[in-house]
Amino acid sequence: QVQLVESGGGLVQAGGSLRLSCAASGRTFSSYAMGWFRQAPGKEREFVAAISQRSFSFSYADSVKGRFTISRDNALNTVYLQMNSLKPEDTAVYYCAADPSYRAYAVRYAHWGQGTQVTVSS
């Protein structure tokens, strides 16, 4: 079992940048694929990005491709989401998730964090 805690959210103007972090508990972090998701008010949760256990593979939603970068540091039990060129449409609660297997664009994950709010102003 792994517990996830997101941080780094906040208020930023359009065009700005923000880096989210997700800290995982336990000593088996490197065995999990990690993903980022987001949910805007009144909308369903959507896939944002994913990274495989050893950072060999990556996947991104079309809406964030070229602007967001997912990375991880297994020594720190942390996964990151670097968000550049932010748009008001990026406003949402961002969640990190962990799963024993990596699948590009997968939406079902075994473990979820509580989320961190990202607000992008016009």
List SSEs in N-to-C order. EEEEEEEEEEE
Strand percentage lies at: over 45%
* Total count of strands: 11
* Model regions low in confidence, pLDDT < 50 over at least 5 residues: none
The radius of gyration computed from the alpha-carbon positions, rounded to a whole number of angstroms, is 13 Å
Query: Helix content range of the residues, please?
Result: under 10%
Q: Biggest β-sheet, characterized?
A: 7 strands, mixed
General description of the model:
The protein is mostly beta strands and 122 residues long. Helices cover 0% and strands 48% of the residues. It is globular and about 40 Å long. 34% of the residues are buried.
From the structure above, extract its key features.
seven-stranded mixed sheet; 0% helix; mainly beta; single chain; 122 residues; four-stranded antiparallel sheet
Brief synopsis:
By secondary structure, this protein is mainly β.
Which secondary structure elements does this structure contain, and how are they paired or packed?
Blueprint: E1 4-7, E2 10-13, E3 18-24, E4 33-39, E5 46-51, E6 58-60, E7 68-73, E8 78-83, E9 92-99, E10 111-112, E11 116-121
Parallel strand pairs: 2-11
Antiparallel strand pairs: 1-3, 3-8, 4-5, 4-9, 5-6, 7-8, 9-10, 9-11
